[in-house]
Amino acid sequence: MQSSTIDESQTVLNYSHDADSASGHHEHPDLRMFGVAVFLVAESMIFLGLFAAFLIYKAMIPEFPPEGTELELLLPGINTIILISSSFVMHKGQSLLKNGDDVKGLQIWFGLTALMGAIFLGGQVYEYTHLPFTLATNLFASCFYVLTGFHGLHVTFGLLLILAVLWRSRKTGHYSSEKHFGVEAAELYWHFVDVVWIILFGLVYLL
Amino acid sequence: MTLQVERPPSSQEPKPHTVPHQRKWTDYFTFCTDHKVIGIQYLVTSFMFSFIGGAMAEVMRTELATPNPDVVQPEFYNQLMTLHGTIMLFLWIIPAGAAFANYLIPLMIGAEDMAFPRLNAVAFWMIPPGGLLLIVSLLIDAPQAGWTSYPPLSLVSGQWGEELWILSILTLGTSSILGGLNFLVTIWKMRMPDMDVYSMPLFCWSMLATALLVLIGTPVLAAALILLSFDLLAGTSFFNPAGGGDPIVYQHMFWFYSHPAVYIMVLPFFGVISEVLPVHARKPIFGYRAIAYSSLAIAFLGLIVWAHHMFTSGTPGWLRMFFMATTMIIAVPTGIKIFGWCATLWGGKINLNTPMLFGIGFISSFLIGGLTGVMVASVPFDIHVHDTYFIVGHFHYVLFGGGILGLYSGVYHWFPKMSGRMYNETLGKIHFALTFIGINLTFLPMHPLGMQGMNRRVALYDPKFQFLNILCTIGAYITAVSVLPFVVNMVWSVFKGKPAGRNPWRALTMEWQTTSPPAIENFDEEPILWAGPYDYGIDTQMLDEDQSVDELLAQASAEVN
Question: Where in the cell is it found (chain B) (predicted)?
């Protein structure tokens, strides 16, 4: 008796079979996006650690920021608006590709996003060079430069992702309404960078 | 609907050397994306580092045989102590857990490979450079602020050594995060069609909990180390009281990772033990769901207890009470696991072979470490023994008992699967006896030493502590000798061991359904979930159309009673 056929209702110990677990390991289109999301959870924990340190110092030191390290709001404010709107611009490009196979539209809107990201970074560099304090002036200054700088590093990386998408999209058929993991991953990452900036802006500039 | 149920493959299957599609030995030195190759790479690398870290421990124990610093200079002792801790934690026990996860998870869930094979290889290949940074630091200016690197000590005790240490930990931490990401996605999304979460082996559950801890905890350590690095190199003072910073902030960030890290180190081996015990006791695991959920509970509780490392750091009283209570609560899920394992053994048909011996050794040693853990969780006791050898004894029982004995148990248990050959049972038993005597002789005397007030982390101590220290040193030498039969056994058996066949233990988990060692894409044919991972005692060969499992179970229990 090498094998026998039995009714599923009485299979060994009734190891239950979910309807949604019926897909094998070959068909998981969302596998990579899930990976990106998990990666972003880990990323956000780095920022959470830095924010927590900032808040502890804020609670510990009575005058925070101390005199001489107050921040101007105008330029970072404009920068913030540019960065947040770039998320919508980017989403437009992604949905054009996803819903209409419009590679040209993707390139235009993603190009615009890259431009806005570059303006944001330029604004940050401009701000750095015109501030009256340096990294080691005091604890607030250190926090300011490390937090915004670490975020700037992430904007730079996001920018590289967008440029990579633009470069690859020139090959015909690389991205389509069916095949758009790179586009979506870059977009998710960019939104993440945006959300982090909103929290960071609130903590460092407004609080 | 009907389902084909086949008998488990017998152990007289093709001999390993006739199995096609095997890896060449050179593949183990390349950027290979096969999860089995990566698993072995992790395992061998971590053992190599363990020999380096172990040698350092032997030098320290030799030094501590006498009360005076006469064998090595105190500065060098500090460096050895720092590197020993760092190497054993970040380069032995954490990668060893990842080794089993890499090797076993895809096999256990019936997948061809991990979710992201290339990322997996990247994660492994960050380990050798990370380890080399540490070893190289010995030649230049090794870190000497302890594995915790508390500022302000770490800010004044050698800048370059400390910076190398930070770079090394950041590299190893990144590797750990990428690995954890891969485990999580693989376990969650790549199980074979019929396998729901409650039919996957408990090892997968424990790796799920471990991966969550890695993803949540490790980045916070990275944040702390980035700030520490700025303090060292850029003149900031995040953690430097001289410039208005606060070293306690570092401690909070550090322990937010490093307490969960204890569970990152032992949870994989909780999983290993949950696999080993039922197989060698021929009994279903007791309380499958309780053991599965307790892994998640340990992970959650592990994240909210970090300040119990800081009871003497000026933590306010109400906060100490909170962390004392949460820390003690961890004993509950851990106790559930231990009772589950003991109940699994109870009335089982226990085969006292090497994996089982190490498994039982694991339970007893971890029990001691866990109980002293509850002791130091209570604030007054902790204040008494803080930074004494009691703590050293406690965490060595946890990590040697919970980590390394579990690791050895798993190595012997899966050796036939990984190599296709059997290890030598006699040498294995000698290895167990020496290890078990060695570690108990080393770490048990540390508890009275600490209670009487011997400080940790110093090369010099009061002569009245010498007798117990000599016992510890003898124990350390026995532990060192125990490595010999292990290495001889492993190396000899890889080449000359008896062919093992597919399933020498007649185990039920999925990895034993394929050849030993498994072919490149794991399963020659689609694997079949013909039984749950722990359905021992249910004779599936007797199953036929007329008899349901319920009847069979009733019949079996009638026979027992």
Answer: Cell membrane; Membrane
